[in-house]
Every structure is written in structure tokens, then in C-alpha cells.
């Protein structure tokens, strides 16, 4: 007779590590946010965060970096300019809904990003476990949680949703649920357009879990997000009457000009992810996944956001490669994760300190 308790443990026991990693990493961030007022009234707060949100929820506001103000503005006022079309509609819509319950759109966006971060961590672990083994999954996720820019996965923007939708969508595709994967990845594209790039991993890894290469439906998870993004982009610009200007701006976009210090940081962090992608090239079944990761990394760094380095934290193929490296090199494991954790804390402190000083 089957033991029900044992069955539950077999099916859901794997969740313990990613949820523990999520809880520990976010607890440290909130501890820092709680200590923010000790260093100054604006520590940890983006200048675009409304003052009333800071006054009512200082701990939450301390993590409100990135583009949370843009999502909150769209949730309140809708799309008013061609540049707003780069913000997908799903996150403002969900943030507005959650905000109506908790009493603040910004707080709703923060809660949404936390939930999506937990789901994303679980998706990363499960996907890495299926592609390699639990040891690789544990260390790959540990590096992701400790990565200096990963605190943006709780900043109220769409990055956590990008991580969650892309990993679970690809996992469903590898299991043969192509229609569900296409639906999930399409939702991810409505949350963050970069999901259209990461969804290509569903085709880059068709045979890993024994899926038939002749099944035409396996291309749907990769094609549907691209179609959704195209319709959203062109439709939104057409409705705003700026389709010509929008296409011209996209084709002739110039890279964001960054200060020398920020450039050095971008290059160093991106270089680490490049090492992870290079490690994937040594595995024949993961080489196409490395190409997908490189495409995502290059696109994000070139022109995606005002702070282009932020979205590299969602380049999960690179973290799979880093997990593979740490699995084979036990002496590197603890020092590597510890150094990344220190850099994450220093980066968060320096970022908020400069804001406070400006």
C-alpha cells in the first residue's frame, strides 16, 4: 500500500531548497532595508518612488529601485507615450489589482515581485535539476541568489516575473506540454519582452527529456512569445499614433551612456555570466542554450533598459553553466557564493548611498 505522506514528499520535497534559498536571501535584503533609516532618510529609495509610499512603507520602499515608478505610473494613468510600450501590460495590471487589495500600487508591485521571485527560484531549481542533477541545481540557484544584481528580483519590476515565466515555460515544453508552455511564455512576454528571447530555450533543448523532434508543436513555445511581443509593440504604437517614430527609435537605438564606474561593474558581472555560458559550450546538449543566453545577455546590455545591466540577473542559462562548474569544483563553492553575497551587499549599499548623497 502506498504511503500518502511518502508520495507527497517524493513529489514536492524538492521545493524545500529553493524556498529556503528565497527566504534566506530576501530576509537579508529586508534586514538591510529595515536598517536603512540608520544611515539616512532616503537610504535605499529611488528618487522616483512617491514620498507617500516611503512614509507609509519605509521598509518596502527601501527595495524600490529600478523601474517600479514606471510600472506604477502606467498602472495609474495607462500608456501615454511611445516609450511606455516597452513596459509590458501584465505587471501593471496585476500590480494594480494587488494594490487595490493592500491599499498601494507600489506595495502591490513589491508583493507581486516577491511572489514571482519565489516561483522563479523554484523554476530555476527544477529546470536545472532536470537538465543536470540536484547538486548542479543547488549551486546554480545559490549563485543566482547571491549574484549582485539579483536584489532587483524584489524591486517591484517585471524581472522576477520574467524569471518565473521563462523557467516554468521552458520546463513545461521539455515535459511535452507545448501548448501550456506557449501560453505561459506568452504571458511572460506580456510581462517583459525579453521572455521572447529566453523562450527560444524551449527549442534549444527539445531532446533533453526525450521529446520527439518531429513534433511541430514544440516550436509553439518559442514562436508565440515573439508573435505576442510584435503584436503588442506594433499595436501599442499604432494606438498612440507613433508607430513610425517607435520603429525608427527601435532600429536606430543608441546604447545607454554609462559612467566609467558603472561600465566596469557591468563588464565584470557580465563577464562572470559569460564564463557560465562558456561552460555550457563544453556540453554538446547545452550548446544551443548557451547561444540563447548570449543573445539575451547581449540584447539586454545593448539597449533594453535605462539601467541595462539589471536584467542580466534573469540570464538563467549562465547560472546553469556556473552551477555545472561549481558541481565539479567543491573548493570553489563556498568562497564563490560568499564573495558574490558580499558584492551584492556592497552594491546595494553604494547604490543607495549615492542616492542619499545626491
In short:
With 358 residues, this protein is mainly alpha-helical.
Mean residue pLDDT: 80
Order of helices and strands: HHHHHHHHHHHHHHHHHH
Q: Please indicate the percent range of residues in DSSP E strands (runs of 2 or more).
A: under 5%
- The number of helical segments is 18
Question: What class do helices, strands and sheet pairing give?
Answer: mainly alpha
Shape: globular
Low-confidence stretches: 251-257
Terminal CA distance reads: 67 Å
From the alpha carbons, calculate the radius of gyration and give it in angstroms: 20 Å
Biggest beta sheet summary: none
Give the helices and strands, then pairings:
Blueprint: H1 4-12, H2 16-34, H3 51-56, H4 58-61, H5 68-77, H6 90-102, H7 105-131, H8 134-146, H9 159-174, H10 178-191, H11 195-198, H12 201-204, H13 220-239, H14 243-251, H15 260-280, H16 287-304, H17 316-328, H18 330-357
Helix pairs in contact: 2-7, 2-8, 5-6, 6-7, 7-8, 7-9, 8-17, 8-18, 9-10, 10-13, 13-14, 15-16, 15-17, 16-17
Describe what you observe in this structure.
The chain is mainly alpha-helical and 358 residues long. It is 69% helix and 0% strand. It contains 18 helices and no strands. α2 (16-34) runs parallel beside α8 (134-146). The model is unreliable at 251-257 (pLDDT under 50).
Q: Which features characterize this protein?
A:
mainly alpha, 358 residues
Amino acid at each position: 500500500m502506498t504511503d500518502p505522506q511518502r508520495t507527497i514528499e517524493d513529489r514536492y520535497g524538492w521545493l524545500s531548497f529553493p524556498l529556503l534559498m528565497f527566504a534566506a536571501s530576501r530576509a537579508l535584503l529586508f534586514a538591510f532595508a529595515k536598517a536603512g533609516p540608520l544611515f539616512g532618510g532616503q537610504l535605499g529609495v529611488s528618487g522616483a518612488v512617491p514620498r507617500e509610499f516611503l512614509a507609509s512603507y519605509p521598509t518596502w520602499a527601501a527595495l524600490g529601485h529600478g523601474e517600479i515608478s514606471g510600472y506604477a505610473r502606467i498602472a495609474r494613468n495607462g500608456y501615454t507615450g511611445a516609450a511606455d510600450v516597452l513596459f509590458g501590460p501584465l505587471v501593471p495590471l496585476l500590480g494594480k489589482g494587488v494594490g487595490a487589495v493592500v491599499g498601494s500600487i507600489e506595495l502591490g508591485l513589491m508583493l507581486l515581485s516577491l511572489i514571482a521571485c519565489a516561483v522563479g527560484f523554484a523554476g530555476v531549481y527544477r529546470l536545472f535539476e532536470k537538465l543536470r542533477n540536484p547538486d548542479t541545481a543547488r549551486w546554480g540557484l545559490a549563485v543566482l541568489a547571491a549574484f549582485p544584481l539579483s536584489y532587483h528580483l524584489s524591486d517591484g519590476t517585471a524581472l522576477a516575473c520574467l524569471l518565473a515565466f521563462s523557467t516554468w515555460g521552458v520546463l513545461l515544453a521539455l515535459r511535452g506540454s507545448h501548448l501550456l508552455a506557449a501560453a505561459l511564455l506568452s504571458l511572460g512576454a506580456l510581462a517583459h519582452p525579453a521572455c521572447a528571447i529566453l523562450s527560444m530555450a524551449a527549442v534549444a533543448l527539445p531532446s533533453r527529456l526525450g521529446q520527439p523532434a518531429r513534433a511541430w508543436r514544440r516550436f509553439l513555445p518559442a514562436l508565440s512569445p515573439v508573435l505576442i511581443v510584435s503584436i503588442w509593440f506594433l499595436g501599442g504604437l499604432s494606438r498612440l499614433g507613433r508607430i513610425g517614430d517607435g520603429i525608427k527609435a527601435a532600429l536606430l537605438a543608441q546604447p545607454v551612456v554609462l559612467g566609467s564606474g558603472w561600465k566596469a561593474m557591468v563588464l565584470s558581472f557580465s563577464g562572470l555570466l559569460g564564463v557560465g555560458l562558456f561552460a555550457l559550450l563544453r556540453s554538446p546538449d547545452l550548446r544551443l542554450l548557451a547561444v540563447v543566453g548570449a543573445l539575451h545577455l547581449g540584447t539586454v546590455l545593448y539597449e533594453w533598459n535605462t539601467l541595462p545591466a539589471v536584467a542580466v540577473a534573469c540570464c538563467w542559462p549562465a547560472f546553469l553553466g556556473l552551477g555545472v562548474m561549481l558541481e565539479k569544483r567543491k573548493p570553489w563553492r563556498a568562497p564563490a557564493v560568499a564573495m558574490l553575497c558580499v558584492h551584492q551587499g556592497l552594491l546595494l549599499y553604494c547604490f543607495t548611498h549615492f542616492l542619499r548623497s545626491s
